[in-house]
Amino acid sequence: MAKRVSTGSTKRRSSKRGEDLWGSQRVEVARPAAPPEEAEERVSARAWLIAGALILVAAAALRLFAPGLKPLHHDEGVNGFFLTNIVRGAGWKYDPTNYHGPTLYYLTLPVVAVTGLTTFALRFVTAAFGVGTVWLALCLRRRLGSVGSLAAAALIAVSPAAVYYSRYYIHETLFLFFTLAMVVTALRFYETRRPLYLMLLSASTALLFATKETAFITVGTLVLATLVSWAWASLTRAAAPPAPPQPARKRKGREAAYGRGEDFRPRRILAAFGPPGRAAALVVGALALFAFVWIVFYSSFFKNWQGAFWDSFRAFDVWSKTGTSEFHAKPFHTYLKWLVQEEAPVLVLATAGTAAALFERRRNRFAIFAGAWAFGILLAYSLIPYKTPWLVLNFVVPMCLAAGYALGAFDRMGPAGAKARAPVLVVGACAVLFAAYQTAVLNFSRYDDDRYPYVYSHSRRELHDLVVELERLARRSGRGQSAGISVASPEYWPLPWYLRDYKGVAYDTRILSAYDPATTAVVIGRDSDIAAENQTPRLRSLLAGRYQQVGIYDMRPGVRLVVFARSDIAGR
User: Fold this and answer.
1) In angstroms, rounded to a whole number, what is the distance separating the alpha carbons of residues 220 and 238?
2) pTM, to two decimals
3) How far is Cα 254 from Cα 257, in angstroms, rounded to an integer?
């Protein structure tokens, strides 16, 4: 039976000269000075590295432990089906009317080459990018401070949303990694003037757009947040009292003055590109790299030119209409309600961190930017009627940055010393432990309980029992993975992923006029409380005498599947 599937080091340079990437000429690259930060010497480099490593280990453990515990969601099954087609030579073409960008599938291929086409391979990819997002938060030490960067990374590491969707084979975790990578590489380019970081910024931006069509919302918000941070700091500079002179401090290598934002004036940003000739070469190179990455992914590695030069642009129109449709439409306050329920410590600390950044005497422009990014994108997505819980990652991650800055700001208020730091440690520990508890419950106990907002029409754990039963029936039929299985139910995802190795599965999505026991060992229909959708009575009548009902299984909220097996294989 044929398958028929329907798918709805940055070492600081003390020299004042840099090398042009495009030749041997050396150009002046005067580096903006970073004001000394009094609090930063409270955390030694060794302590910061140990703490950062422990945070990364915890993030990896939460994301990689028992990745197959939670059955695949409908969308994960579709994504896994596309990946299966690519691996088995059937190919994949970008379709802007139904699905998101191609990076998720192609970035999974190296893992599949090592582990095979498994659930672990799927979820390892998103888990790895989730851990990578935590690492990127640590890379913001210069902007958030030692305490702030550690706190932000720890909050992302244990965030219920960040962990839950890192264990989910969908695009969102990759999308947030590329978003934060854009921010980090842009800052690195501004600080170092090294062309490498401009190229990484270009590649990250291209990968962001090749991951999900909502990239234009993210990029627009980041630009606006940058303008807000610059404008606010500029407008309030005159009103702020002058900062007291800071004593000169001995700096050790990369441990120089972290934590205070630098003067992000347009003139200084442009100065990062150097003289006109060098600037032109850098811009052309960055644009060329962006176009190359875009074309490579959207053309399915040069096999679908329409995807790169037409469909990838048509997607913005398609998804702008989707966002304003009634599909998944929810009230304006939905995301805020979900944040209060699942991310309350981060929401409170992010609010405090944003307020501190706006009104403290010495402005930290990056902290203002993080707050404007977090609450700006929350507002943007709240205004859009289309709302799904995985979109909360778009504002949970920047909120964690602002929350980390809040803890760093609280730390700077008091004198140095372990006793003075105790209140900050208590607040931070309570926030992290509260989030960790919610994460443990959500991810390892209540992962299919739709009373939790992140569990959104998710497959029930009973789906695993259904798969085990189908495997048993296939073995008893004597044909194994060649056993004939007819799926009459119009709702069946993510079964195609779990039955990917079965050659005799047909997704008929309707009851056939007759079933031949010689070729069809199992028939799967939909059982429902709604008479018009309930296939069970008709299948019982049609299959009587030749097949037996072996069970009814909850697949996801509102969808139950009834299984009939040939009489000779139905008994245990």
Assistant:
1) 29
2) 0.87
3) 9
